[in-house]
Amino acid sequence: MTSTVVIDKAAPTRPVKLRSMSRDRTWALRWSYFFLTLFAVFALVPPLYMVITSLKTSAEISAATNPWWVYHPTLSNYVELLTSNQFLTFFRNSALVSIFVVTITMLISVPAAFALARMRFWGSATLATGVFLTYLIPETLLFLPLFKMFVAFGDLTGIQLINKWYVLLVIYPTLTVPFCTWIMIGYFASIPKELDEAAIIDGASWFQTLTRIFIPVALPGLIAATIFAFTVSWAQFLYPLVFTTSTDQLVLPVGIVTTLIKGDVFAWGQIMTGALLGAAPPLIIYAFLMDYYIAGLTAGATKG
Amino acid sequence: MADVAIERNAAPRTGRKRASLRTALKRKSTAAFLMTLPLILLILLLVIYPAFYSLHLATLNKSMQRFIGLGNFQFLFKRETFWLVVEQSCIFAITAVVFKALIGFIVAHFVHNIPAKGQRKWRGMLLVPWVIPPAMSTLAWLWLFDPSYSAFNYLLAGIGIDRIPWTGETGWARFSVILVNIWFGAPFFMIMYLASLKSVPDQLYEAAAIDGANWWQRIWYVTLPMMRNIIAITTLFSLIVTFANFDIVRILTAGGPLDRTHMFATWAFRIGIEGGDIPLGASVSLFMVPILAIAAVFILRDINKRGNES
What is the ipTM score, two decimals? Predict the structure, then answer.
């Protein structure tokens, strides 16, 4: 389209014909922004309303004032929750579970992904596909047999795992390991073969190849997998609801839902504060490591 | 199956070379097998075994002492609630996935449309629903839908609309759980579609523009065929997750009013854990398997196809 005006070197601006097109573009852009604003409002209303409610006193919540505005902002809900032993216990349980699960997941899935991506052995391709299929099995299908299994395990060995927070360390890896292995296979497979061949020629063992070459090179993938494992174990709701019941063993999501909602007397200021504090760790990670987070999210379907 | 075969394959190999165990350990396949062993054990013990165990459980009576064959299923088929759950699960999954896919597609286009330097900011805001743990965000929705203090009803009252029983009436309760699920899941579609939109070469659009294609033709003949794979796999994946949804329904309505919003997962929980009838609950959750199997077959085909290409 620009070919007609190349002759006129004094006027580098676009010809008249294009101006209407650029006007079309500005309108398209305005509409885009308009609809994006609508969708952003839809996306952000619940979290914003959490913030609004968390800043109110119970008296203000039950008063018939505008629920979308805070007239007397107060931090008392936060102070109350952050000094309550029960809530801190939930937080500690959640943090412990998530950190341990992330460690266990990485210890299992990184070597496995390395073996499946590089050291072809009999059945490795089938196993890789099998790992991905396991990821598709929802937890809602397995919670009843798992519960029964752990009850039977307790009866058989005398080791009572039910109603202990550390039972979750055994169960959560079923949710995190398959996906993390799958995306690590993708990242490891994209590393050029020459790199590890060079290391092997220089006399490195398989273990050294993994720790000196693969892990540093695939670090972005490792971070994405870590974030995924953390957010999954932090947000998991069904398993802790099934496997833990005493208040000192609960993790944050279940703790908030079962202890703060007391019958019909809803202490909504505190519930929203608790929910906000429970959502904070994933949100903070997301805010700082958005690109890794999204890489982990899209890796499952785009790599492979 | 394959996992068992691997063990069988590796065992005689190490046995034969027991005299030189160290050489065996140095062998590539042995090392690889040992590295995948924790993964194989985890999957066998905590995924494959419970899956088959639930088949066994489903054939037992409530106290789990007597084999009753298909008795649990016969009992379920006679109950009205079961058919309600089937109906609601299908309505919920299909409606939610269709709307998530549509909204995701539209929003991805809008984000793709705006200048590149602003995209990050918008993408960041629009993905927030996906980042918040669903159990936590559903609490916010529960409060927004509160029967007496609903903030939505306050706004609606401002424009003269009567208060809506968001979670109190069958139709509205079904609408509410689907709405929350769409809110939570649409960002995932958006991010997937955005990633694949960016991988469509610009030349194709230029060629289409030269051929005089309007925006609709560009979407229909260029964008959609290029994104077909991603759309298929994302939709199938989301169908599984939505069909097996637990958190949102459990917190928002707990299956009510009158069991009208129960899904397979929440009903299985109600029967199996709260009602103490684990075998019946396991039978209920087994009904998620057919949809799972169908989706898995399609996803597997897609993955194999891609494996052959590369």
Answer: 0.83
